User: Fold this.
Amino acid sequence: MSPLFSKEKDDAQDNGREWLLPEDARKQVEKIFANLPTPVTLSVFTGEKGNEVYNDYMARFADDVGEICPNIEVEFFGIDGEEALTYGVEHSPTMLVSKDDFGIRFVGAPLGEEGRAFVESVLRVSSRESGLSPTSAQILEELGDKRHVRVFTSPG
Assistant:
């Protein structure tokens, strides 16, 4: 697991709040997201049956990030609700990043390398910059048809 998301027992509580992220990780997250140019919304979808450990991790992780970063808002929805139908969410847990503006979603808990992808996604969404070179952006624009890009990671 990435050191950013490892848990140390001695600093898991702060003023009565039980944190998932240890203090050093919270400081890193706060520093990384300190100057987000525009707000980002994290929409977390979870179900009541199955994947309880990952659902809990996702909810606590998102809640920690939202508590640390004033420019990140977190909202929670049930997997069986209207919001899940509207956005085509079928798996629990799922996190959408600024759901009304972008099609970025994380299915499962953002552990390990997914943590880096999460950070990069929030930074890109907030800056409204894709990070693509002008040539790549032009090639993609010329495709014309919509594409459904999926990236899969698995524990190594």
About this structure: The chain is about 35% helix and 15% strand. Residues 1-11 have pLDDT under 50 and may be disordered. The first strand starts at residue 13 and ends at 14.
